[in-house]
Amino acid sequence: MLIIVGAVIVMASTLGGFIIAGGNPVVLLHVSEFVVILGVAAGVLVIASPGHVIKEIIHKIKDALGGKSAGQKEFSDVLKLLYEIFMVGRRNGLIALEEHVMDPKKSPIFQRYASILGHHERLEFICNGLKPVIDGKIKPDQLEELMDSELKTKTESAHHPIHILHLVGDSLPGIGIVAAVLGIINTMNAIADGPEKVGEKVAAALTGTLLGIFVAYGFVNPLANRIEFNNQNDEQFLKCIKQAIAGFAKGLAPLTAIEVARRSLDHAVQPGSAELEAALKALPGK
Known about the structure:
The protein has one domain (31-281). It contains 12 helices and no strands. The protein has helices at residues 2-20, 31-48, 51-65, 72-92, 98-102, 108-111, 114-117, 120-135, 140-189, 195-249, 254-263, 273-281. Helix 3 (51-65) packs across helix 9 (140-189), helix 4 runs parallel beside helix 10 (195-249) and helix 4 (72-92) runs antiparallel to helix 11.
């Protein structure tokens, strides 16, 4: 929602200022300039990106426009989920976790947390982290290193769409110049048509330069930055999971492991200590 609000502000400020200065917005509507600039920008994106990155860009843009980033509720849910899992392991032995981890969609614990069960990446990271704990085949320090390695790979992969969007954003002013040069070429061919026709074509050429800069700094680069913030939010979510599982694997009590993970969170998404403890004590089977 905030992205849409920001886009409206950008458009309203630009067109509003132009109108206040006596400009007519209609003179900015040159379809040929839009075709050149947006078409070349799309081509740059396709040339620079493997197919899976293009799909990821679309996915990330949808998430950004929909405001899909984990908030305090989602972080509270994952901490409660992990606490329930840890308590089962502590009471019934680690082997009791197998039925929950191997098929989480049938687990009564996971089913209580739709924000985790419906998010493939988070669910997979939790299960991948817990499986070595159940097997007991690696030491706790090795488990933390393994989860760090997986997290690093996910972080690098998530940055690819940002890199491509910044490339497109940085290219747009230059693409605008290309559109302007094409417009000037057309202008030179229209000199014999009189000053009015020449003026119209020069205006179209200048609109191309304006459009390239406007789309780059008003939309594409800010959108890339928003996606980067969302990625940081996702990374923090996975780090929270890693902290809790690694702590439990090292022998920390379930409540202590959860508290360590909670303290690792940014204050904007961090559940309150007393509030979370009360929620944990109110869980079924506690």
